[in-house]
Specification:
CATH class of the largest domain in chain B: Alpha Beta
Distance between the termini of chain A: 45 Å
CATH topology of the largest domain in chain B: Rossmann fold
Largest interface: A-B, 91 and 80 residues
Number of domains of chain B: 2
CATH class of chain A: Mainly Alpha
Strand content of chain A: 5-15%
CATH topology of chain A: Cytochrome-c3 Hydrogenase, chain B
Number of domains of chain A: 1
Number of strands of chain A: 13
Oligomer: heterodimer
CATH architecture of the largest domain in chain B: 3-Layer(aba) Sandwich
Radius of gyration of chain B: 23 Å
Shape of chain B: elongated
Radius of gyration of chain A: 22 Å
CATH superfamily of the largest domain in chain B: NADH:ubiquinone oxidoreductase-like, 20kDa subunit
Helix content of chain B: 10-25%
Structural class of chain B: alpha/beta
């Protein structure tokens, strides 16, 4: 007979964006069950009620300091629908540049600050790659953070140029952007992108971005990885570590990946393990509050949803609601976007790993980073100074309902707005990490991370198991968005 | 050699934006510019390797007085609800409310610094009905009496130092911590709301690139217009403390330079204006929020005068998103 399960509570789970606690029930040195707790509630959906509708452009970005632009875009898209605003081509291009800039900076921040420092931990001292990992990935002191944090800061000059500052800009409006780009600024923009490309190509990839995006199979990835010394570029070092640690077998998520599509570059859809891609239908979204410290009973569509804290609710264990698509758990993020879009490498990875894994999530994030920069270069070259960047709304803020959807770095973000007489009558937000880190629903079905943690090995004596940390951080959680 | 100046950084009810802003400090990241002044981060939620039990051990050591703490930095509002239990934010893995951790650690710190407007005054979570009981460390809105109590003084005898702003400029954070580490800080360097005067003695208006439009009251009417944002679009830069347009953000940016209004994010209560953020509140056609230290009648008289003197170039460009009429040139001198 096996011994009774023992329980481990892991937190504070830092190097994620925000607050997170994970409760693990262990059996035979592996996770048998996981419960994911968002231990913070910030009340933004309540704060938005009754405010002038356009105030959402100020309030919503402040939900999150790492994806504030994504929140801006979602709010602006929802407002555009109720005010009949149209965006000129320049406005669309600059909005896309600002959003892609945030996505790209977030992917880099995740890789260098939040994820890779775990490979420099003393518990890996015996691995053949440890010296290289320690030298390159160590928190703060490693060569990568020392080189890439400055690169990130210089890349964020794009935000200064186009959006005034980052985070928390008001530049993104329903009808476009508040600042026109003049010819000299367009050149500066191209220079910023060129400098960032150089940093990525020399430090992260040690290769051309185009060589990375052209990798179209696992064989091609392995071949590329073996074509140079293991520490020739951070991506290659990660691939070597991933192979040694079996990160392709760690953290298998639900094999249903969804994306609302982005930039017209990444197609929307819902992918399942049979490699079918169905349309992504926001009307099929519901939120369940069974395990959340929230009043309510049956799952509700966001337009009918309420946010009423109930801190003493029995059996609840998180401030996060449980969103479901057609009643099903989905995983969102860069991997979902690349798989849904049909990138051959991303598709091959999820087919081989049976859904998302630690390896595939990290590879997809870097693959997307490599795809974004050339697209941004194209958009910057397509700007036409002298033509309009913002159009006034076609109608004053009126009554109506609208869904503002956007792909944040971490996945699909939706704002469900109900406006009446120019004021906010309802505002429900479903953030990427609400999807990925949702608690159990009324049927007892665990959320995506809760599923992904099952089977994760826990070594004797570990209080903050290292493999659990890899799985959790592979999702790049943004808890502050989750606990709006 | 003097020992390091130790900093412990906690994220209370925050969006994480203050940290994200600070990571762009001096274009190199946060740790390096602090290191130049002998400042060492004992623990920072985004930067430290230590997780879970290792992180709790660091907090326990400080709370028990086993490790000396020179400065506690708190980012985000202290959430006191529901019903003063603090259960809207429990510090993961400890079963203890963040508000209680903040109080315990603040009692051991030589200095306490509020990073951002939420930690300073309550900030955005305190908007609306303040559903989470959000408070600043020392202030609730503009009133003294935050989560640490009215009479709070850190071990150095200073009140909480409020680096307000949403998000604050990374330079404000680095320079304030550096001044503390250099032992150069005193109450005379704080304004009446506990903000460093090095920052708060300026106005966001100073150095605004729209200065000529302001001088002539040539005003923007809609987003992306180049004109002054004060008359119609809600700009509060003439009242907002901060050197925002002097030092610039993320390279060369600023809010007003990017075409949107200053929302006075360094001031208590900025989150709850009387009207929409992006519209100027007016009484009888005159903006309510005029510069605080200028007689209103003079402002109105000068505005009327300058409007009548506005050059056609300025008037035209104020309503365009790019320069339509360039400045006049003296004709070239004939030989």
């Amino acid at each position: 007979m096996s011994p009774p399960p023992r329980r481990l509570i892991v937190g504070p789970f830092n190097r994620v964006e925000g607050d997170l606690e994970v409760t693990l029930d262990l059996q035979d040195d592996a996770v048998a069950e996981a419960r994911v707790t968002a231990p913070l509630y910030r009340g933004f959906e309540q704060i938005l009620l009754g405010r002038p509708a356009t105030d959402a452009l100020v309030i919503a970005p402040r939900i999150c300091g790492i994806c504030s632009v994504s929140q801006s875009v979602a709010a602006a898209r929802a407002l555009a629908q109720v005010s009949d605003a149209q965006m000129p081509a320049n406005g669309r291009l600059v909005s896309d540049l600002i959003l892609a800039g945030e996505n790209a900076a977030d992917h880099l921040t995740h890789f260098v600050l939040f994820f890779t420092p775990d490979f420099a931990r003393a518990c890996y001292a015996g691995r053949p790659w440890f010296a290289a990992a320690r030298r390159r990935f160590a928190a703060t002191e490693g060569e990568s953070p020392r080189a890439l944090l400055p690169a990130r800061a210089r890349f964020l000059h794009l935000m200064g140029l186009l959006a005034g500052k980052w985070p928390h800009s008001l530049a993104l409006q329903p009808g476009g952007v508040t600042k026109a780009v003049d010819p000299a600024e367009r050149v500066r923009l191209l220079a910023i992108l060129a400098e960032f490309r150089e940093a990525l190509e020399s430090i992260v990839f040690a290769d051309r971005l185009e060589a990375v995006t052209a990798l179209d199979s696992i064989a091609a990835l392995e071949h590329w990885s073996d074509a140079a010394a293991p520490d020739h570029g951070d991506f290659r070092l990660f691939l070597h570590i991933a192979r040694d640690l079996g990160l392709d077998r760690l953290g298998r998520g639900p094999a249903r990946l969804a994306s609302s599509g982005s930039f017209g570059l990444f197609q929307p859809g819902l992918w399942d393990i049979g490699s079918r891609v169905a349309p992504f239908d926001p009307a099929a979204v519901t939120e369940d509050v069974t395990s959340a410290w929230m009043a309510g009973t049956a799952p509700a569509a966001p337009f009918a949803g309420l946010t009423l804290p109930a801190a003493d609710k029995p059996d609840a264990y998180s401030w996060c609601k449980a969103p479901r698509l057609d009643g099903q758990v989905i995983e969102v993020g860069a991997l979902a976007r690349q798989v849904v879009d049909g990138h051959p490498l991303a598709r091959a990875l999820v087919a081989a790993d049976g859904g998302g894994s630690v390896r595939s999530r990290v590879v997809a994030r870097l693959l997307e980073l490599a795809r974004l920069i050339p697209a941004m270069e194209d958009w910057a070259r397509s700007l036409r100074p002298g033509e309009p960047f913002c159009l006034a709304p076609g109608a004053p803020m009126a009554d109506g309902t609208a869904i503002g959807l956007v792909e944040a770095a971490r996945g699909t973000l939706g704002h469900w707005l109900t406006a009446q007489d120019g004021r906010i009558n309802g505002y429900q937000i479903i953030a990427p990490t609400t999807w990925n880190f949702s608690p159990r629903d009324g049927a007892g079905t665990p959320g995506a991370l809760e599923q992904a943690l099952v089977g994760t090995p826990v070594h004797p004596g570990e209080t903050t198991p290292i493999a659990v940390q890899h799985v959790v951080r592979s999702f790049d959680p943004c808890m502050v968005c989750t606990v709006h | 050699m003097a020992r390091d100046f130790t900093v412990l950084w906690l994220q209370a009810g925050s969006c994480g934006g203050c940290t994200m802003s600070a990571l762009a400090a001096d274009d190199v990241g946060l740790a390096k510019p602090l290191d130049r002044f002998g400042i060492r981060l004992l623990w920072h939620p985004s930067l430290s390797e230590d997780s879970g039990r290792e992180a709790i051990a660091i907090l326990d050591d400080v709370a028990a007085g086993r490790v000396e703490l020179d400065c506690l930095c708190v980012e985000g509002a202290v959430l006191t609800g529901p019903n003063e239990t603090g259960r809207f934010q429990m510090l993961s893995g400890t079963g203890r409310a963040m508000k209680d951790w903040v109080a315990a650690l603040a009692a051991k710190a030589r200095h306490v610094v509020a990073i951002g407007s939420c930690a300073s005054f309550g900030g955005m979570p305190a908007a609306g009905g303040n559903p989470t009981g959000a408070r600043g460390l020392h202030y609730s809105g503009g009133e003294m009496g935050g989560a640490l109590g009215k009479g709070f003084r850190s071990l150095s005898g200073l009140p909480v130092i409020n680096i307000s702003g949403c998000a604050p400029h990374p330079g404000w954070v680095v320079e304030t911590l550096a001044a503390l580490a250099l032992g150069e800080f005193g109450t005379s360097l704080l304004d009446t709301l506990g903000r460093p005067r090095a920052i708060a003695d300026h106005l966001a208006h100073h150095g605004c690139s729209r200065n000529e439009f302001y001088e002539f009251k040539a005003s923007a009417a809609r987003p992306s217009d180049r004109g002054c944002l004060m008359e119609n679009l809600g700009c509060r830069a003439t009242q907002a403390p901060g050197d925002c347009n002097i030092r610039r953000w993320n390279g060369a940016g600023s809010c007003t330079d990017a075409g949107y209004t200053c929302i006075n994010c360094t001031s208590p209560g900025f989150e709850s204006p009387t009207g929409p953020f992006q519209e100027t509140a007016k009484l009888a056609g005159i903006p309510v929020g005029l510069p605080l230290d200028m007689p209103k009648a003079w402002f109105v008289a000068l505005a009327a005068l300058s409007k009548s003197a506005t050059p056609q170039r300025v008037r035209t460009n104020a309503h365009a998103d790019h320069v339509l009429i360039p400045p006049a040139r003296r004709p070239a001198r004939q030989p």
